[in-house]
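Board notes, transcribed. Complex of a protein with flavin-adenine dinucleotide.
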Amino acid sequence: MNALSRRRFLQLLGLSSAAAAAPTLLRAQAQSVVPAATTNRVVVVGGGFAGATVAKYLRLWGGAAVDVTLVEANPSHVSCILSNLVLNNSMSLSQITFNYAALQQKYGVRIVTGKAVGIEGKALRLADGQRLDYERLVLAPGIAFLPVPGLKMNKVPHAWQAGPQTTLLQRQLAAMPAGGTFVMTIPPAPYRCPPGPYERACLVADYLKRNKPGSKVIVLDANPKIMAEEHTFSTAFNQTHAGIIEYRPGVTLNQVDSRQRIAKTSQGDVKASVLNVIPTQQAGGIVASAGLIPAGQRWAPVNPLSYESTLLPGVHIIGDAQGTGQPKSGHIANAEAKVCADAILRAFAGEAPDPAPVTNSACYSPITANTASWLTAVYAYNPNTGLMEVVPDSFGEAPAPTQGNYEKMFDWAAGLFGDTFA
Ligand SMILES: Cc1cc2nc3c(=O)[nH]c(=O)nc-3n(C[C@H](O)[C@H](O)[C@H](O)COP(=O)(O)OP(=O)(O)OC[C@H]3O[C@@H](n4cnc5c(N)ncnc54)[C@H](O)[C@@H]3O)c2cc1C
């Protein structure tokens, strides 16, 4: 991010918190800071884009009629969104780290820093032995990784949950010699952020071109083809980053030699100077341990009208962990959270959920250090199939990456961050 973009991004973050205090919202907000005097208790697990949004909107819309506790393992959340820009030193982790002060102080959400480990009847159990009783539980734990034989994440980072893993990969790239090879593996879909791995390949190639002449990027994709913005990324691989990125589809990762940095695959061994393995993903740990993923599946089945588990009434699952088939993105996690908050408040009032919910996803992908593309789609509930489906003609992609898109990416991100955490 150049100095101008950074200044504008920080200004916009300020504006988005101010937007939450705009006159139209003041009544709802004033209501929400009133302490809850109710037995409508909602406990939310996970303070990412899904969990922080549902906690905020339950109080914003429900006010004193609902008591909300957010259980989050960490005191703050590091956004995966924009985290690929930390790898090429365009941004710092501190610029994409958010605490829960606004949720607590402006909306009256009770924050508990701790790890949820199980469900017992109508109570959530934490690692420190606490039990939190609830009428409704929302699980928004994001993703967990399936094991990869030989993978040691302290040597071979995934950087697919932002934080120390991002810093580790950034340092390995900075220390990589000129003429080296960056190898990344992409897991089978569905995985978190469909365009994210291809965006990373582009940004790393761009960084290496400028800082480590003669280096290469090898992308080993378990999928048969590029899974998002195919035209944009194949053009980027074959033209913008031609001679640097080598894309190999249909490659299964079997094992990793973490010490030697070798990916052992269905198409032979690939040796790396820096190896980035993004493992296969499933719903975050608490969802699996609570028995909310059927055998042989990776995501939690839910009713798309309310995000209530089809396996355990009273428990809702949103964000990357849910299995409605909607893409696993922060933008749509924020939208799902609002549908879920509305459905829970309606349930407390004895009403059925909205029969026609709509969600949307938008995503900007940087292709170089100053150009980006974008992708957007709207999803609506189809009562005939019981699924959230893309609204015809709502799907759109940038015709080509531009500098203007790169600048707009920070406006979009600041709006989403503000709507979630401020
Ligand atoms: C490199 C990259 C780039 C991306 N770019 C974009 C983008 O441009 N646009 C976009 O829309 N999306 C993007 N995404 C995807 C987006 O980050 C995820 O879809 C989003 O974070 C999902 O939100 P979530 O709330 O479901 O999970 P998370 O954001 O992972 O939040 C889950 C939270 O739950 C907490 N938690 C987990 N288990 C427990 C427990 N047992 N007890 C207590 N707390 C727990 C975790 O600490 C975490 O804070 C990107 C992802 C990556 C990796």
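The chain has two domains: 3-144+282-355, 147-278. The radius of gyration is 21 Å.
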